[in-house]
Specification:
The chain has 157 residues and is mostly helical. It has four helices and two strands, in the order H-E-H-H-E-H.
């Protein structure tokens, strides 16, 4: 199957299908958490334009990009749970998206390229966010930091 869009499958149809994959990946990450429609709208608003502009390159990028979107769903679910809610609100999605994008962008900077490339370009009006941890938030149920393991050492349970 070719990477190119044929006449019967328009670019806009392909973009909508890719956006559907984003929704699915977010839901996978969210698990059993319900996602408010405003959070879905925020996802669409953030990613629809970059998707439409990069349809031809989706096949190669899909595994990495969808893993990041799933990670956004997991973090958003943790934020919602920490706030005592059984659903992901738009604010949870946005905070999780910003944190994951910041991590992806900084990792890409270290290796001279953004992993997710044109799919999640930096937003000029947003300041970079760190992943919420117990040290960076006073919110109840804050996400605990992952233990750091020095190179060559073994994890002790």
């Amino acid at each position: 199957m070719s990477n190119h869009i044929n006449e019967t499958h328009t670019r806009s149809q392909a973009a909508e299908e890719i956006l559907g994959q984003f929704y699915f990946a977010l839901g996978q990450g969210a698990g059993i958490m319900r996602i408010q429609r405003s959070a879905i709208t925020a996802l669409r608003t953030r990613y629809a334009e970059p998707i439409a502009a990069n349809v031809d390159h989706w096949r190669a990028a899909a595994p990495n990009v969808l893993a990041f979107v799933s990670q956004v769903g997991r973090l958003a679910a943790q934020l919602a749970t920490g706030a005592g809610r059984g659903y992901i609100a738009e604010a949870d999605f946005t905070k999780a998206r910003q944190a994951v994008e910041a991590a992806v962008h900084s990792s890409g900077d270290r290796i001279h390229g953004i992993f997710a490339g044109p799919w999640c370009p930096a937003v000029a009006t947003e300041r970079p966010q760190e992943t919420p941890t117990a040290e960076t938030t006073d919110e109840p149920g804050a996400i605990a930091p992952r233990p750091q393991i020095a190179a060559g050492s073994k994890r002790v349970n």
